[in-house]
Specification:
By secondary structure, the chain is an alpha+beta fold. The protein has helices at residues 3-17, 21-38, 48-80, 129-135, 188-191, 218-241; strands at residues 83-87, 90-96, 104-109, 112-118, 125-128, 141-147, 150-164, 167-177, 184-186, 195-199, 202-208. 41% of the residues lie in helices and 31% in strands. Mean pLDDT is 76; it is low at 212-216. The chain crosses the membrane at residues 58-79, 223-240. Pfam families: gag-asp_proteas. One of its GO terms (molecular function) is aspartic-type endopeptidase activity.
Length: 246
């Protein structure tokens, strides 16, 4: 390679590394702009905004659906709770059918609160073995009961104080059935002491009431608090949706 050729080659190599001033300024401005976008503005914490955005994205719909669920639960609890009418010592309880088609009534066994499923086909007031343990029922006499699935072995515990919806307490025998899930049935040995009428998905019980039987059912007491919780969750969902803290 001659001297002239080497000189031309060196000039082209220098041109590759020595850019025009206009190109240098263009690249410098592009780099400065990229750094400004990556650097948080004053008062903004790095990584704060994406986390807050994702939190609002998740929490807002969660609070919304929980709030709707709480309001629906309160509404159906209020509608499904019994209505009490009383004149002197005579009382009438109107029990709407629950969503599962059954009728439920709050009561007590030996003074301990129990929610009964009213079962006119059951001969006795019945509880599951798990609920009997929770109530502290004494061990009873062994017995065999006929159920829809066939005969099962259980126990009969005599002279238990049973009250339901303001009726009673009555000294009744309570049958203990197999099963760990808490369950209580209001059977015929209690229902024969009251008048029962069933019509339009409602069960009506009439009989002699206790003096303090006008107290509202627990379902009606709980419903307003559950409704308030639902409203609070909906407000929180709207606040998160708008980007503010609730």
């Amino acid at each position: 390679m001659g001297i002239d050729q080497r000189g031309g080659h060196d000039a082209r190599a220098k041109a590759r590394f020595h850019l025009p001033e206009a190109e240098k300024m263009r690249r410098l401005n592009a780099l400065r702009h990229a750094l400004q976008r990556a650097t948080p503005q004053s008062g903004e914490r790095p990584g704060r905004h994406p986390t807050g955005h994702y939190s609002r994205t998740i929490l807002a719909p969660l609070c919304f659906f929980l709030g709707l669920g709480a309001l629906a639960f309160a509404f159906f609890s209020w509608l499904g709770s019994p209505t009490v009418r009383q004149a002197g010592t005579r009382m009438e309880i109107v029990i709407p059918a629950a969503l599962d088609g059954h009728h439920y009534l709050d009561g007590a066994i030996n003074g301990q609160p129990v929610t009964f499923l009213i079962d006119s086909g059951a001969s006795y007031v019945s509880v599951s073995h798990g609920l009997a343990q929770q109530l502290g029922l004494a061990r009873g006499n062994s017995a065999t009961f006929m159920t829809a699935t066939g005969p099962v072995s259980g126990q009969i515990v005599a002279d238990q104080a049973v009250a339901a919806g303001g009726f009673g307490p009555l000294p009744l025998s309570v049958s203990v059935m197999p099963g760990s899930r808490p369950m209580a049935l209001l059977g015929q040995n209690f229902l024969r002491h009251v008048e029962t009428v069933q019509a339009n998905r409602q069960l009506i019980l009439r009989g002699t009431a206790l003096p303090a039987s006008k107290a509202p059912s627990p379902a009606r007491i709980r419903a307003p608090w559950v409704a308030l919780t639902g409203v609070a969750l909906l407000i929180a969902a709207l606040a998160l949706r708008s980007g503010r803290r609730p």
